[in-house]
Write a structure and sequence with these properties.
The protein is of the alpha+beta class. Helices cover about 45% and strands about 25% of the residues.
């Protein structure tokens, strides 16, 4: 059950047997059905999620109720509104399941305690946050400077095979275009 998340940790830190046992003992597990909301904008993010199976999305809804996907989190990705979780303040983003999904997660107080007990976990989550911020900056720059076709190509590279699993309207929202325009782009590529 924990193989994937432990491999994810090992990308940046080495946990010894006792540390691994402690981390595993503090992890919580949940299955969520497709379309289940794990975090509503305006609520405080109480958990940071690791996707074991399935796919989550991080999104914001505008004043007209249109949803704008910011990030997809398939297997082996982490999902959180980082500002809300870190500051325990109201979330700007919502998090929901695009498929039936299995997550492992830490609550805010649990992770804060683990930082004290296993200081190298702070390093892991610092690197994770830095990498996430880097991806976010690339995404903003891409949205400002690249064509829809180029953004679609980047989506396909970042999320290989994901477009076979999720609705076209979700991808279009992520790209900032309409589903009809995405369909036109796909037809031109074939």
């Amino acid at each position: 059950m924990y193989r994937l998340i432990l491999k994810n940790f090992s990308m940046h830190i080495v946990l010894d047997a006792a540390e691994t046992e402690l981390v595993v003992s503090r992890l919580q597990y949940k299955t969520v059905k497709k379309n289940t909301v794990l975090l509503d904008a305006g609520a405080i993010a109480k958990n940071i999620y690791f996707v074991k199976k399935g796919c989550l999305r991080i999104f914001n809804s505008d004043q007209e109720g249109l949803e704008h996907n910011i990030l997809f989190c398939p297997e082996n990705w982490w999902a959180v509104d980082i500002a809300s979780f870190s500051g325990q303040t109201p979330a700007f983003y919502s998090i929901a399941a695009l498929e039936d999904t299995e997550v492992l997660y830490f609550s805010y107080p649990t992770l804060e305690q683990l930082y004290i007990e296993i200081p190298k976990l702070e390093r892991f989550f610092r690197i994770l946050t830095q990498n996430g911020f880097y991806l976010y900056q690339l995404r903003v720059t891409s949205n400002l400077s690249k064509s829809a076709e180029e953004r679609y190509a980047l989506f396909q590279k970042q999320y290989p095979q994901l477009e076979l699993r999720i609705a076209q309207k979700q991808i279009a929202s992520y790209l900032g275009i309409t589903p009809v325009f995405l369909s036109m782009i796909r037809k031109r590529k074939t």
